[in-house]
Every structure is written in C-alpha cells, then in structure tokens.
Amino acid sequence: MSDYTLKSVMAPYIQGLLEQKRALGYKYDVEEYILRRFDKYWIRENGTLTELTRESIECWMQRKPTEGRSSRSTRISVLRQLAIFMNGIGHTAYIPDEKYVKDYPVIHILSSDEIVALFTVIDNYSPKIRFNGAIRMSNEYKVLFRLILTTGLRRNEALKIKKQDVDFDTGTVIIRGAKGHKDRIVYISKDMLELLNKYVEYLSTDKGLDTIWLFPSLDSSKHISNGIGARFKLFWKETKYAKTCEKAPTIHSLRHTYVVLRMNQWMEEGVDLSVMMPYLSRQLGHTSINETFYYYHQVREAFRLIHKRDTVASIVIPEVRIR
Q1: pLDDT tens digits, one per residue of 231-260
Q2: Are 158 and 145 contacting, i.e. CB atoms less than 8 angstroms apart?
Q3: Any idea where the domains of the chain sit in the sequence?
Q4: Is residue 236 within 8 Å of residue 248, measured between CB atoms?
Q5: 112-316: CATH homologous superfamily?
Q6: 28: Cβ–Cβ under 8 A, 6 or more apart, which residues?
Q7: 156 touches 165 (CB < 8 A)
Q8: Residue 142 has pLDDT above 80, yes or no
Q9: Cys staple from 158: which of 25, 153, 228, 253, with CB 3.0 to 4.6 Å?
Q10: Coil, strand, or helix at residue 65?
C-alpha cells in the first residue's frame, strides 16, 4: 500500500476500523484502498462535516461511468462497515442497505415550476427571531442558492468563496482548492453578477460587515457551513411540491439541475453536446470529461420535465429582493 495519510474528519473512524479488522486477522488491503478513496471523497464533497448522513454520501453511492456493479457493490459494502463501526463506538451514522445493488436513484432535477416555487419560499423567508445576524443570513440564502443553481458549483465550493475572488469586471469567480486541489475560474451570468454586486454592497454598506467571506456565518469571521443542508430541506418542505415528490432534492440537486438546463438549452438550439462538453466539464471542475458524460442519463430522465427553452437566470433572478 502507498504511504497515503488519512486527512478527512472521518480519518479517526477509518483508522479505527482498519485496526479493528486487522486485530481480528483480516488482511483488509482492498478495503483500505477503498477507504482512502472515501477519505479523499469526504474532503472534496463534505469538508469539515462530522456527520455521516444519507445526503453526505449521495455522490459516493452513484455508479461511476466506467464502473461495474460488483466494484460499486464493494465500495458500498466497505462504507457500510465503516458506518456500523461508527455506530458501535457511539457516533450515529447512516448505514447503507446491505442489499443495495441497483443503480442509485437519479438525483431530483427541479422543473421550472419547482424552481420558482422553491425560490418563492426562500425569498419570503423571515426568521422567527429577528436579530441582525439572522436577518442578514436570510438575505444570504437568496444569493447563495441562486449562485449554485446558475453556475453548477458544489456546495462547499460556493460556501468558501471569498469576496476578493469575485471579479466583477470579467464576470468570473476563482474557486480555490477544489476537487483535485486545483483552482479554476467559473463564469457568472450577467444577471447573477449584478445580484452579487448588489449583495456585496448590502453586506458592507447596509450591514457594515468587514469580512473576507462572500457568505459569512453568524460569526462573520467564518463562512456558512453547518446547517445549510437542513435549511435547504426546510425551504423545500414549504413548497407545494414537497408532498408529491418521491425523492426530495438536496443542495446537490441544484448543481445537477444547472447541468440539465444548460444541456437542454443546447439541444433546443441544435448545438452538438460533444463539442460543448469539454467547456461544461471545466465549469463543473471535473477532472475528466468522462465525469461530465454521467449527466447524459440525467438529461434523458429530466428532459420530459423541461419542455421550453429555459435559462437558469430568467427563472430565478428577477424575483430576488435584498432587504
């Protein structure tokens, strides 16, 4: 095995599982290799999140484009052992079904009507306890979730943006330390850029906030982190579609919806997707174009939901009000 050092917040549990299995006489080399991959996955997708939840392992559960069912089943089995170990030492963790052999369900792609309904709830949200920080964050949610939907950023990438990394002259934002520990430049639509400019002015002028973060937490020295997934779920539950939706969307669904909307627009315009895919791959921060081709099946599933030539910005930008 390589000399890879476990680095994620899951590292103590992974190390504990390895020690336990080897104390019982298991070689556990293949499993260690998979757990090292999971360690890297956790850093990339979940950052400092300490809870192993169903939402946090959604991407891990998906079958990769070139992966067989047996390999995927092995990955899930090893993760299941880790979750069982964590529960055994008193740390609650979601345990994947041991009979999980089917392809992971398609991530919910929001239709135009669902997008409008969701952002109507977000825009009308008013904190029950109306202190300055809570009011400020209610305005941050409006901008944060729109930014993810209109750029396809991963959740943690959006949360960690610094104000200095947004270039209003070029209409870009630098995403630092993304997947593969690489920086990349992401382009922002004109309407979204105008909203960001208005929002940054709101933070500095209206709230007098001196912070490096684009989306500061209640403690403005830190960026938003804990609870953002739960907050999104609460917003979704307030929509009229929540009761009829088989699989509730997560923040990650906004990223997938961005891709489907973009690819749908290209198909409506008669653009060759194979030509545009490398550009989309760079925008999403994929390490190879093969990762982006995974979304083809998402398009096939969601195409029936999106019949008109929709653009992300035209759906969600006009409704927003910073107050």
Answers
A1: 999 999 999 999 988 788 999 999 989 988
A2: no
A3: 11-88, 112-316
A4: yes
A5: Intergrase catalytic core (1.10.443.10)
A6: 18, 21, 22
A7: no
A8: yes
A9: 153
A10: coil
